[in-house]
Amino acid sequence: MNKIVANAQDAIQDIPSGAVIMLGGFGLCGIPENCITALVSRGINNLTCISNNAGVDDFGIGLMLKQHQVKKMISSYVGENAEFERQLLSGELEVELIPQGTLAERIRAGGAGIPAFYTPAGFGTEIAEGKEIRYFGDKPHLLEHALHADFAIVKAWKGDAFGNLIYKGTARNFNPMMATAGKITIAEVEEIVPVGSLDPNNIHTPGIYVQRIFQGSGYEKRIEQRTFRTTL
Amino acid sequence: MLDKYGIAQRIAKEVKEGFYVNLGIGIPTLVANYIPAHISVMLQSENGLLGMGPFPVEADIDPDLINAGKQTVTMIAGASLFSSAESFAMIRGQHVDLTILGAMEVSDSGDIANWKIPGKMVKGMGGAMDLVASAQNIIVAMQHCNKEGESKLLPECTLPLTGVGCVKMVVTDLAVLEITPEGFLLKERAPGVSVEEIIQRTAGRLKVPAFVPEMVL
Questions:
Q1: pTM above threshold 0.90
Q2: Do residues A75 and B124 make contact, with C-beta atoms less than 8 angstroms apart?
Q3: Which of B22, B24, B130, B151 could form a disulfide with A121 if both were Cys (CB 3.0 to 4.6 A apart)?
Q4: Is B214 a catalytic residue?
């Protein structure tokens, strides 16, 4: 049951070019920094990346975009990345934009064995094109399909050798659903603690979903909008 | 005429005791500054926080605690944290009382466009489509006209839609308007703004009552 691997390089060493990968995080908050660095240095390409955002030009998934490793991005908001926009407008990069709640639920459904579901989000907009529409009561809904990944890469605060995870603050975001939706789920954590020391009442991701875990290092946790007040 | 702070201040009057409120990026975020201290509300941030507090003092900045605009924030006492799936369950399940968001265009039937300018801007819709499709009470905060001076209150949206027939109220620098089956209903004018100016700057159907009070901020 010991799922601990040495580091990010070991954790991602069998991800092939062309793989579909999920990467946790919202903006730069709760992103798997160590694994992204390792993916950049391994240089695999043709990846389909499912992630709420695409990082910024010089951090997060932006680093993979710069190396032209990403063939397709599936996201809800990509507005902070000029290189992304350039590749998209020039046709180098394929992108599928999905409403954020639909994205979260499609991933949740993937991990939970629900093949598809109906949601009102996007009715009457261009994202409804080609989708089945069904009325429940007097309200129209779109049929949306589950998302799965070959590899889901998540970032947590604490974890143990069984793969149990606890997230911190709003760094949780997409990580718990993605952990459930990967054929192989890789968790990088700030601290690996002994099995039995995490309170079972407070575990966010039970270890059954996680295949590999390692303690990351050198977290930068870059802040996109550093806002603070000067009065108490 | 109101500046963006004035728009936020006017919208804050729509926030009632006990409300759970989702504030969008931009002017809506400013609304939090004008909610009176005696009113108890919970701000929902769709990246997974209920009970968002003010910006931190510099020493308390935590990169693991941000709002949907990626700004560093704090939590009030009684706050809770959750995943994005749970966050949108709250939104889709209509547990949020009030949603305030910005827009590029609003139509007189309550359609909203705020996520894409074809060929120019591809940022994505984020959570906006989920919010407008499910929220029961949506207020749009925006300028009445764009930078070219063209009305953003239209008979039909020209930009790709975010949602259909969902907006209930619009607060602009010039006016407060409700969406009714007869189009925009002029409810209030901003200080120093005439009814004639609002008529001139509104392209969509506009119903003007005999008396239009000036806003009380």
A1: yes
A2: yes
A3: B130
A4: no
Query: What is the per-residue pLDDT across A204-225, written as a single tens digit (0 to 9) for each?
Result: 999 999 999 999 999 999 999 9
In a domain, A139, yes or no: no
Q: Is the pLDDT of residue B143 over 80?
A: yes
Cβ neighbours for B80, distance < 8 A, ≥ 6 positions apart:
B49, B50, B51
Among residues B67, B63, B62, the alpha carbon closest in space to that of B43 is found at B67
Tokens of A124: 């009457």
**Could you report the predicted ipTM of this complex, rounded to two decimals?**
0.96
- Which residues span the domain enclosing A81? 8-115+147-215
CATH no. for residue A166?
3.40.1080.10
Give contacts of A124 with chain B, Cβ < 8 Å: 111, 161, 163-165
CA dihedral A188, A189, A192, A193 (to 10 degrees): -140
Which residues 81-120 on chain B approach chain A with CB closer than 8 angstroms?
A: 81-85, 87-88, 91-92, 111
Number of domains in chain A: 1
Query: Is A77 close to B91, i.e. CB distance below 8 A?
Result: no
pLDDT at A231 over 80: no
Cα–Cα distance for residue pair B45/B34, rounded to 1 Å: 18
Rounded to an integer, what distance in angstroms lies between the CA atom of residue B12 and that of residue B90?
A: 22
